[in-house]
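Lab notebook: predicted structure, single chain.

Context: the supervisor wants predicted structures on file for every construct in the current expression panel, including those that have not yet been purified. This is the next one on the list. No modifications to the sequence; it matches the entry in the shared construct table.
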Amino acid sequence: MLAVMDKKVRNLSVRIAMACFVLLAVVHGQGQNAQTKKTDGTTPDLTPVTLSMKWPRGDRHYGPNFIWLSTPCQASGDVPCECTMTFKVINSKGFADYISSFGDGQVPVVYQVMYGADGFARGQRLESVGSWQADRFHLNEQALSVLYTFKGGKPRQKQPAHTNGTADCFPPKRN
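Prediction complete. Output recorded below exactly as produced.
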């Protein structure tokens, strides 16, 4: 009995350790954004980029103050995609009312973007959502997510695609 229980605890411990590892990898990846220093010790050049995002308000699960922002990708190649932000933590009536004040208009979301030598975005840091500065939001709410849309095919049919994650959200920089 003790051996069976010990095996269950060990399996649970392994699952918890793996979940923590994934969480740390995600947090570390978020930290590898526009704050990274160049090899010569200087801070990289940041370019402000405004994304005009559409919005709906409210969600059955998160409530009436939930805000979801989205805009089409600007640099995607093979696969159509959409860049999104969700505001679950702030859950503020004031913020939801502010976003609602845009009516049918789009919300200006400004990111400071670090571009690579190839002209593609390599990191980004939220600056503001409209007039609301980034420090008013939880770290999770400052991140972009990307939804890729794969067109139908036959079951188990492979669809090769090249994607660049959140770099697809920003227009390439022309030198």
